[in-house]
Amino acid sequence: GQSLEQPSEVTAVEGAIVQINCTYQTSGFYGLSWYQQHDGGAPTFLSYNALDGLEETGRFSSFLSRSDSYGYLLLQELQMKDSASYFCALRSGNTPLVFGKGTRLSVIA
Amino acid sequence: GAGVSQSPSNKVTEKGKDVELRCDPISGHTALYWYRQSLGQGLEFLIYFQGNSAPDKSGLPSDRFSAERTGGSVSTLTIQRTQQEDSAVYLCASSLVTQYNEQFFGPGTRLTVL
After folding, report:
1. What are the CA-CA distances from residue A9 to residues A2, A12, A70, A74, B82 (Å)?
2. Residues of B with CB below 8 A from A87's CB?
3. Model pLDDT, residue B82
4. Mind listing the pLDDT tens digit for each residue in B85-102?
């Protein structure tokens, strides 16, 4: 089977940096995606890592280590609007994405 | 262009009634997915359509749930004899066949079963 683990909640200060970790178990791994979901909103795609290393998109970066079955999302220069839930999602084989339970990020002043 | 649309946005029904939820994917997206999200929880995969292939129904929780996709575009998720535990937000997403790591979600249908 497939499974993902991520922290349920994280709190960070406005302007700071926060890292949201995701560990996974699967076979036939293709890649790890990250999605953001604001309360009452739809999930929106942030990033995708198929290869080891860091992918940067503005203030957001995502990292993958296939050998460690581990990835993280890094948010820099945190803003209040970054308060949301963040989901890692696994792609393996021909199966649809499997989503983690989500990490609720609270940004405080 | 237009994103994924879903209707209705909210649906309140009585236990035992049937409901139909509709999803209009982004034009040109051949992959379509249905998920269920309970309050404060992650996304639970329900069913996946890809082109004219047989759908992947492995996530449907019971035989009360069914879905179809007509003409490779619009999809309808049907829940028969609804139960209170079916109350959730039902999300539809679509993607290009080559990029199903990047899915585009609709706003969801909030279903409440009384």
Report:
1. 22, 10, 18, 15, 32
2. 42-43
3. 98
4. 999 999 999 998 777 788
**First-to-last C-alpha distance (Å) of chain B:** 37
Nearest CB to B42; choose among A45, A87, A95: A87
In chain B, whose CA is at the least distance from the CA of A49?
A: B101
Sheet holding A70-75, edge to edge: A3-5, A18-25, A70-75, A60-65, A53-57
> What CA–CA distance (Å, rounded) separates A67 from A65?
6
Number of A–B residue contacts, CB under 8 Å: 49
Tokens 């803003």 identify what position? A79
Report residue B78 as tokens.
């049907």
User: What gap in Å lies between CA A108 and CA A20, rounded to an integer?
Assistant: 16
Name B86's Cβ contacts closer than 8 Å, sequence gap at least 6: B79, B111, B113
CA dist B89 and A93 (Å) reads 27
